[in-house]
Amino acid sequence: MENIIELNKDGSLLVPDMPVIPYIPGDGTGPDIWNAARLVLDAAVKTAYKNKKKLVFKKILAGEEAFGQTGEWLPKETLKQILKYKVAIKGPLTTPVGHGMRSLNVAIRQELDLFACIRPVKYIPGVPSPCNEPEKIDMVIFRENTEDLYLGIEWEAGTRQARDAVCFINQKTSKNLDEGTTGIGIKPISEKNTKRIMRKAIQFAIDHNRKNVTIMHKGNIMKFTEGAFLKWGYEVGKNEFKDSIITEQNLRDKFDGKIPEGKIILKDRIADNMFQQVLSRPSEYDIIAAPNLNGDYISDLLAAMVGGLGLAPGANIGDNCAVFEATHGTAPKYAGLDKVNPGSVILSGAMMLDHLGWHEASKVIHSTLQKAILNKKVTYDLARQIPGAIELKCSEFARELCASMI
Ligand code: NAP
Questions:
Q1: CATH for 130-147+189-305, among 3.40.50.2300, 3.40.50.12780, 3.40.30.10, 3.40.718.10?
Q2: How confident is the model over 293-329, as pLDDT tens digits?
Q3: Best residue for ligand 1 mutational test, from 309, 316, 345, 392 (most atoms within 8 Å of Cβ)
Q4: Which atom of ligand 1 is nearest to the CA of 331?
Q5: What does the pLDDT look like over 222-238, one tens digit per residue?
Q6: What is the DSSP string of 245-270?
């Protein structure tokens, strides 16, 4: 009998001691970082639970390997397996250029309705950062994952569809777009999808005793998409979480700026302002809820602020399953060199352990990673910025973490 994670009625997980976890190693540097991460995950679980618990990894296909074996970049069977086992982990996948899918990662998120892209960004002491006070950075981004410009409704200039769309727009508005040379992209943002990502963000803030939730939007310009995201976001806070939330406006008007005990502030920032705010006043931001494209941009900025993509974890979570993944790409120039930092998949794995409720194993990973960095035993990306660092290969870094687990 296979050990399958079950979903309780309230959406929580029923996790057996030896759950099957499907994994996709990924393309390019994917196999290097996945093999390293797997070593660390297995060792952390063993350290935390001796032999009482174990992750039973099961390989599934996507990307170049899948294409080579099946002629498909993302086989249906892969999606079925993720749905069946409910929690999966993956390395980065190449985006096929000029053919096939727009992006395999986007396709996985959309096909499985993994509507919440969750990216924690917290400074690890010892990691070189371009910021003055990186220790103040401790944010979690909730990026809507299923719509916005990422839905891929786009028509190339000159095509029949683009011409039809331009004619429609010119008829319905006072615009005068050029019919033959205008490309079109559509930006759908819906109440249903906005409200579910907002619920997840606010619930997370409540569950983790966080101080505030900021809606990042460009609603001043895109009124009926990003502006609607803002409006629906506030509606969720005000109507569904009124015991826990007060708005920043209320805080000023009714509470003279003093936060009442146990309340979480719900505020918003226009996207361009948000970028300078997180850089200049990081301690004022905690949970960020954003539509898809804004969420994408701010994630990489924040990752860079705490040491780069090599250490940035991520999760894509829906109501039926979750996929944990490295947030960077395949870094093809380093493929097969056993060189890059496996930290992103390792930390995504730690998020996965937390998702399973295996917090002890997750803590082991965080503390050993911290130790290795303070000892300046790091991969090339950090070594080139830390004076006196000892540069380790990807696999050596993993073995270093395993050796220091207690
Ligand atoms: P990338 O693979 O993220 O690499 C960009 C740069 O980031 C690398 O050259 C390297 O910087 C640094 N980097 C990436 N991974 C690292 C790691 N593990 N450790 C240390 N540094 C790391 O971005 P890209 O070159 O634009 O994209 C390559 C392919 O990946 C494309 O096909 C793209 O579509 C795909 N992609 C996939 C995902 C995903 O699977 N989630 C995400 C993004 C992109 P230095 O050169 O400075 O060393």
A1: 3.40.718.10
A2: 999 999 999 999 998 878 889 999 999 999 999 889 9
A3: 309
A4: 2
A5: 999 999 999 999 999 99
A6: EEEHHHHHHHHTTPPPTT-EEEEEEE
